[in-house]
Amino acid sequence: MRLYEGLALAGLLIELFGWSTSFLFLGFYDIFQSLPGKARQIYFSLIIERLQAIHDWFVQQSCLAFYGSSVLIVYEGSAEYLQSIAHQHDTVSLTQELGNLLQVRMIDFVHVWETDQRDENYIQGVDSLINYIHQLSILYK
Question: What is the pTM of this model?
């Protein structure tokens, strides 16, 4: 896992393969520790929702296999900014606002091969990532 932080941009690059569970879990824990509680729970929900969309695509397709690909999770805004908008918005409008600040994307497509079956390894990796985020959301409640 590689971590990038800028002035108004904090991002988390998750390598789906090759990192231990505890390292992944602690990386997420450190990133989300600084977010206000209301925004944190909404981000967890949004990340899970977007990861589920990636998962669903992989379940439906059976023509490509991805090796060494990653998922990039990026949210914009400092903890102070997120704290200020968390107090100014109701849950629905805050979810919309935070949804505009969050990106969950597949990256690193160097090793993509044609196949005739589902990419079970990628599906398993995304499932694990969804599970980690869900565990964190419970931990922070």
Answer: 0.79
Please state, in angstroms and rounded to a whole number, the distance separating the CA atoms of residues 97 and 82: 10
Q: Using H for helix, E for strand and C for coil, what is the string for the chain?
A: CEEEECCCEEEEEEECCCCCHHHHHHHHHHHHHCCCHHHHHHHHHHHHHHHHHHHHHHHHCCCEEEECCEEEEEEECCHHHHHHHHHHCCHHHHHHHHHHHEEEEEECCCEEEECCCCCHHHHHHHHHHHHHHHHHHHHCC
Pick from 8, 36, 49, 10: nearest CA to 94 = 36
Structural domains in the chain?
Answer: 2-134 (3.30.470.160)
pLDDT tens figures, 23-62? 566 667 677 777 777 888 899 999 999 999 999 999 999 9
Tokens read off for 43: 């981000």
**Could you read off the pLDDT of 90-108 as tens digits, one per residue?**
889 989 999 998 999 999 8
In order of 43, 51, 63, 95, 130, the CA distances from 136 in angstroms are 11, 15, 33, 18, 10
